[in-house]
């Protein structure tokens, strides 16, 4: 079965040693919660175990996992690497400006060097200098990318600046579709990837989060027009991280990686709809979800050609 342009065969993950919900991001991340019943050390140990088991489950499904350790105490959100870099077909890598100062410390040259060593990397475009101008675009958290139709869906927020979004889309050949999205309490959704997930043949999206009715219809029509089955998620399901999933290329075909919490919140008909297009891989990460992100946030997809593939082709 040929791999889909939409589904990465490999992912980068970070295993945290000192995980904690980030106080610096709590103001605009309504999905973030506290755990008063466990000590900081217990929370950190649990997150380390959850990341380990998630990586093992993905590897067992046939996904290549590049697992890096984070042993510092300065990067509480390091388990979510999709926000600071992304990779793209043709050998392109982007590095992004981050809203929270302590999240900027997550950027790691060793990860970029690994990508260059293991994959064909033609260029690295670094937007992080725009932080000095208070211009932010937090990677594939801020954008949900349709790699097939070349569309970048982006909900406006403090973490998604339209100026740099336009620049990214020009550099990487995407069409931007920007919209306003709010949660059930009317608060802007901080990252686009908590409200939508685009696979090869399906799209999950919380359409009710899109404030403008005309824009909502336009987005639905655009997704359906690409030939995908559109699975509408409720506000409650968005709150359970149902939209924060990622389709990856497993040994037997497409796999939707999502949290066990998200899978439990889906209706049986929605599960059947997903299973028409991919197998489901639920991952148990309740501690990591305290930080306001879920499985998709943990996975930085590698959309690059491996050097072993290049050697075999030669």
TrEMBL record:
It comes from the Bacteria. GO terms for molecular function: transferase activity. Pfam families: DDAH_eukar. Signal peptide: none annotated. Keywords: Plasmid, Transferase. The keyword Transferase applies. This is Amidinotransferase.
């Amino acid at each position: 079965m040929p791999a889909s342009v939409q589904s990465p065969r490999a992912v980068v993950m970070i295993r945290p040693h000192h995980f904690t919900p980030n106080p610096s991001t709590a103001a605009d991340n309504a999905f973030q919660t506290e755990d008063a019943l466990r000590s900081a050390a217990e929370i950190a140990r649990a997150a380390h175990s959850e990341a380990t088991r998630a990586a093992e489950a993905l590897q067992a499904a046939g996904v290549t996992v590049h697992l890096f350790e984070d042993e510092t105490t300065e990067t509480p959100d390091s388990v979510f690497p999709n926000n600071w870099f992304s990779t793209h077909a043709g050998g392109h890598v982007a590095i992004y400006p981050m809203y929270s100062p302590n999240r900027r410390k997550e950027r790691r040259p060793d990860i970029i060097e690994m990508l260059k060593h293991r994959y064909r990397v033609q260029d690295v475009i670094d937007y992080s200098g725009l932080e000095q101008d208070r211009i932010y675009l937090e990677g594939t958290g801020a954008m949900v990318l349709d790699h097939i139709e070349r569309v970048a869906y982006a909900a406006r927020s403090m973490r998604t600046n339209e100026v740099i979004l336009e620049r990214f889309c020009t550099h990487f050949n995407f069409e931007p579709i920007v919209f306003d999205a709010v949660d059930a309490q009317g608060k802007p959704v901080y990252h686009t990837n908590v409200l939508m997930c685009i696979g090869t043949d399906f799209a999950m999206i919380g359409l009710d989060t899109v404030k403008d009715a005309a824009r909502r219809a336009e987005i639905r029509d655009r997704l359906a027009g690409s030939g995908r089955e559109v699975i509408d998620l409720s506000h409650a399901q968005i709150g359970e991280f149902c939209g924060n999933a990622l389709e990856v290329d497993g040994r037997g075909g497409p796999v939707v990686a999502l949290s066990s919490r998200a899978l439990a919140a889906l209706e049986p008909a929605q599960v059947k709809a997903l299973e028409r297009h991919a197998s489901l891989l639920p991952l148990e990460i309740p501690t990591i979800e305290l930080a306001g992100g879920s499985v998709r946030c943990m996975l930085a997809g590698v959309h690059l050609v491996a050097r072993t593939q290049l050697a075999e082709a030669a």
